[in-house]
Design brief:
By secondary structure, this protein is an alpha/beta fold. The chain is about 35% helix and about 20% strand. The chain folds into 2 domains: about 80 residues, 60s Ribosomal Protein L30, Chain: A (2-Layer Sandwich); about 140 residues, SPOUT methyltransferase, trefoil knot domain (Alpha/beta knot), CATH 3.40.1280.
Length: about 240
Amino acid sequence: MIESLSNSKVKYATKLKQKKYRTDTNQFLVEGEHLVEEAIKSGLVDHVFTTEDKSYEEVTVYQVSKEVFSKLSELNESTGFIAVANKFSSQDLSNNILILDGVQDPGNLGTLIRSAAAFGFKTIISENSVDYYNEKVIRSSQGALFYTNLLEENLIEFIHSHKEYTFYGTNVSLGTNLKEVDFIKEKIAIILGNEGQGLRTEIQNLVNTNIYILMLETESLNVGIAGGIIMYEVFERNL
């Protein structure tokens, strides 16, 4: 059992609470028994810390004291399981991709990752958004993050260099009704903007079509909900 707070593995894992170290090492923390087991299934886990007497065939498990676990944990209530996992990303893009321009809320990002996985958008590309590997994002994604290709790119450069995609932006005042848009395309990219500001004007000017969702008695939807509706519409049209 690891009981020392100065243990090298504990000190290393603690640093992964910070985005800088996650970026430098390409590793991140996963907390909670269910999420840890999902991460193990995905093949991303390096090792596990737990306060329980439990083992997994696939990975090394270190039993730790409650004090050590408390130092590693980012939750108010201890869950007893934390994994150090490896980030996964590939330059091989899926036919349907989701692009995020400045999405800042971890709950929204986690919801979008979950919906993207459900509706066949296996690649997500973001710029100026909350970190994919933020603890709240991971929990909100309910494990979908482990099976999604997550990239950070300059969006304007990406659009210019990937003409094989049809790009759809969102604009509640100047867009085309979602139900009137033809999504029968081989390669589709849906672009969603910041919660408060929407898409940057320079990106709206580059898309093939801007769209909006028809609504009653409200001007706009939460970006997580709007993204799910649009991705489902694309998914259904291409069944």
